[in-house]
Amino acid sequence: MPGAAHPDPAPDVAEVWRWLSEVPDPEIPVISLTDLGIIRDVVWEDDTLVVTVTPTYTGCPATSIINLDIEMALRGHGIGKLRLERQLSPPWTSDWITAEAREKLRAYGIAPPVDGTAADGRLAGRVSRLAGGSNLVIACPRCGSGHTEKISQFGSTPCKASYRCKDCLEPFDYFKCI
Amino acid sequence: MALAETAVDRATFVEWLQRVGDNVLILGHRVSEWCGHSPVLEEDIALANQALDLIGQCQLWLGLAGEIEGKGRSADAIAYLRDAAAFRNVLLVERPNGDFGHTLMRQFLFDAWHIELLRALKGSSDSRVAGIAAKAEKEVAYHLERSADLVIRLGDGTEESRQRMEKALKSLWQYTGEMFMDDALDIAMAGAGIAPLPSSLKPAWDATVSEVLAEATLTHPGEAYQHKGGRKGVHSEHLGYILAEMQFLQRAYPGAIW
């Protein structure tokens, strides 16, 4: 359909960012793709809209769904010529999750990441403290208690760990810092 | 980027990428075999997630291999349409899972090497390689912390778990040396500044392994005969069984998608 690629005039990128902020994350629908910090760039290249997305984890099965959701949303707003690009560098970090999104996560029952506590794999000198333990205090998203324990470093998705609250006894997910 | 590409020939670069990609592909497949069979639900989920990370990394490495090769092969085509002799993974990752402790010991010995490799690759002269490594390193840091944690807990656990971990270590140790052997291809890649010499990763690996084994009250096996061959396509019989399962669909129904 030459000549009918986009609404006329073409929407500016701020408008596109607003549309993307309404696209929910497929795994955690209370936060959006922009909340998660995975949309890295939105630009017009001549008459093609280019959206750059970075994956959270390399093997995250949601990645292809996310791309599909972006495409569906933008097509729904009348975008005709669209290209999605994958960008690996700099690698995604949970630090990019917005403050607002962290509160949404907590309200949803997922403890938000504690910045600066990503695993670095440097074990030297702390091996004796490694086994079974975690120096992290993760507050229970339900009752707020800091009296919690890690059950497993990998939870229901690669980006989460499993915890349990020793006060209200509920299990919960912790969004890992990475 | 272009500079690094001209520093080694295409075939060398692709061969090296297959070594890196095949390691995580085969180990990822091995770990995924636990799905639905783990001792407890949390470990089942953890193993499946870790397998997912490894397969995700494999897609990036083999995807880059296909791109540099320039013959239109996708990561899937490289993974599913090669025979055993064309695989370049080390023998360690094709070892059978054994029991849960055996699987975690294999994972630990691999993770302790993998993290050092990725750290070195972050400084690669090829920006694509450096980008994948920086991404993967963050995931592998969690893998290593988990496998080291469990090796310690099972090694320094009950008499039964300790015996199983001793047995696993003894059985797997002879497959660790291959990760540190340099050959002409490694020397070419190191010369181009794309990848480190495998032997250069040994001191850091030794330090991590010694410290964790000591904490786990396991006996360090010391110097021992080391098997090799996987990186040149000479594999144990186990790889054939892995491929028979992994490649079945694409072999039986070429081009199948869903």
Give a verbal description of the structure:
- The complex is a heterodimer of chains A (178) and B (258).
- With 178 residues, chain A is α/β, with parallel strands linked by helices.
- In chain A, 21% of the residues lie in helices and 20% in strands.
- In chain A, strand 5 and strand 6 form a beta hairpin.
- Chain A is elongated.
- The N and C termini of chain A lie far apart (44 Å).
- Chain B is mainly α and 258 residues long.
- Chain B has a single domain, classed as Up-down Bundle (Ferritin), CATH 1.20.1260.10.
- Chain B is built from 11 helices and no strands.
- The longest helix of chain B has 29 residues, at 41-69.
- Residues 1-5 of chain B have low confidence and may be disordered.
- The chains are: A alpha/beta (178), B mainly alpha (258).
- The A-B interface holds A 55, 57-61, 88-93, 118-121, 123-124, 127-128, 130-132, 151-158, 162, 176, 178 and B 42-43, 45-46, 49-57, 59-60, 111, 115, 127, 130-132, 134-142, 144-146, 148-149, 152-153, 156, 207-208, 211-212, 215.
What can be said about this structure in brief?
The complex is a heterodimer of chains A (178) and B (258). Chain A has 178 residues and is of the alpha/beta class.
Fold blueprint:
The complex is a heterodimer of chains A (178) and B (258).
Chain A: H1 13-20, H2 33-36, E1 39-45, E2 48-53, H3 62-76, E3 82-86, H4 99-108, E4 110-111, E5 148-152, E6 160-165, E7 171-175
Parallel strand pairs in A: 2-3, 4-7
Antiparallel strand pairs in A: 1-2, 5-6, 6-7
Chain B: H1 2-7, H2 10-32, H3 41-69, H4 75-80, H5 100-121, H6 127-155, H7 159-173, H8 184-191, H9 202-215, H10 237-246, H11 248-252
Helix pairs in contact in B: 2-3, 2-8, 3-6, 5-6, 5-7, 5-9
